[in-house]
Specification:
mainly alpha; 3 helices
């Protein structure tokens, strides 16, 4: 779904800047880009959440360790220094 929204936003963004259609579709492009970014982040987080489950299936004792590593990585990526 994220790729779909990015594709639609790409069509709008590729319109000539001074065209009436671009001005009319501008708010839609902004909404599509926000939705695509949200869906992309959800998809990436779900992919990361599956990793500990797969590790648990192969090595049951390593599952909790993998979960803690994923949580540490997400915590580090979600914070930034200004």
């Amino acid at each position: 779904m994220a790729v779909r929204y990015y594709n639609h936003a790409g069509f709008i963004v590729s319109m000539p800047v001074a065209s009436d259609e671009r001005h009319r579709w501008g708010p839609t492009a902004v909404a599509y880009l926000r939705r695509a970014g949200l869906l992309y982040s959800w998809g990436l987080r779900h992919l990361l959440m599956v990793a500990p489950l797969l590790v648990f299936i192969v090595y049951p004792l390593a599952g909790p360790v993998a979960a803690m590593l994923v949580l540490a990585a997400l915590f580090a990526f979600d914070r930034f220094k200004t």
